[in-house]
Write a structure and sequence with these properties.
globular; alpha/beta
Length: about 325
């Protein structure tokens, strides 16, 4: 029996699902721009649509079959989620469906993922060649371009030519948390679809569906800021330890002299050689005690949260990670005292 995984697996994004349902019903190949906070279902929905486009056992879903979809009297395709095509897309093995991100680019160039700072023109040129070729197996070719704001100007110009006249039976999805960092010409060639942070109730529903233990849910909901993807990432053993360290650091910033706290930070950085991602996780974890302080009425919390958010922005703009972290600790120490 056919299941409705294409849409029932997306929690907390009814407007995005509605727009994509209309897109499917119109049988169009207009490129879609998914934007909104990280970990809120952008890649998941793009992959579910890829399944619906290439499913070998396509069903027709009418309006009254689900309250999530609001358009009237228009049937749409829904994947079965069990055929060979659906399974291969879910496992990242379908030859006609490709997620283009730093992992893909690193593998194609035989480089490490940490070396990837931008999506380069060579990567987009290779994708353009693939999209203009005949499909290998399914009726639709799909490109899911994650972190589209990382495109170099040259790569964006190549992509623009694809977006202006996409090949027939080609679905293109651009994914980004930062719509404002995309070139305006790229945005103008797409249909924007906004993803919002989930409410606490939606987060609980999502984490329960993902079998996250109830004891962990409250803390994860507090830290993840409406992002199930971020919650899952933070639920790993090493991330739980990182949260404990963030709590301890927050208290130390209040108690210690600035120089002592900063010196220990530099010592850890040199010994452990943390990556940009490691430092970003440390900074992100500080939002948990800072948010708790804000709710308790701590007057130092609002400027501290501003400093943390500014540090996260700098890290995503390729500012030197250790400098960002050390400066953040110095400023937090001043703010907290």
């Amino acid at each position: 029996m056919t299941t409705l995984m294409s849409f029932s697996s997306i929690i907390g994004q009814p407007l995005a699902v509605d727009l994509c349902g209309r897109w499917l019903a119109q049988n169009t190949n207009q490129p879609l721009l998914f934007y909104g906070p990280e970990g809120t279902g952008k890649r998941t929905l793009a992959l579910e649509i890829a399944k619906a486009l290439n499913c070998k056992d396509v069903s027709v879903l009418k309006t009254n079959d689900t309250p999530t979809l609001r358009y009237s009297h228009t049937p749409i395709r829904v994947s079965c989620d069990v055929c060979s095509s659906c399974r291969r897309i879910a496992n990242g093995q379908h030859p006609d469906v490709r997620v283009v991100d730093f992992n893909f680019q690193a593998a194609e160039r035989d480089e490490t993922v940490t070396k990837q700072q931008t999506l380069r023109i060579e990567t987009i040129l290779d994708e353009r060649r693939r999209l203009f070729q005949s499909s290998v197996e399914g009726p639709w070719k799909v490109m899911i371009l994650d972190e589209a704001h990382r495109l170099t100007p040259d790569a964006a110009n190549v992509l623009l030519k694809i977006l202006e006249e996409p090949p027939a039976k080609t679905a293109i999805f651009l994914l980004t948390p930062f719509r404002d960092r995309l070139f305006p010409t790229v945005v103008s060639r797409t249909q924007p679809v906004r993803f919002k942070p989930l409410t606490d109730d939606e987060m609980r529903e999502c984490l329960a569906a993902l079998h996250v233990p109830g004891d962990n849910q409250i803390r994860l909901i507090e830290l993840a800021l409406g992002s199930p993807g971020k919650a899952l990432h933070l639920n790993r053993e090493e991330q739980i330890e990182s949260l404990r360290e963030a709590e301890e650091l927050w208290q130390r910033l209040l108690q210690e002299k600035m120089s002592a706290g900063l010196t220990r930070s530099e010592g850890r950085s040199k010994a452990a050689r943390p990556t940009r991602a490691d430092i970003e996780e440390k900074v992100q974890a500080l939002l948990l005690p800072a948010g708790r302080a804000l709710r308790s009425g701590d007057p130092t919390a609002p400027p501290a949260i501003g400093l943390i958010q500014n540090a996260l922005t700098q890290l995503r703009q390729n500012v030197q990670p250790s400098l960002v972290y050390d400066y953040l600790l110095m400023e937090l120490t001043r703010t907290r005292r």
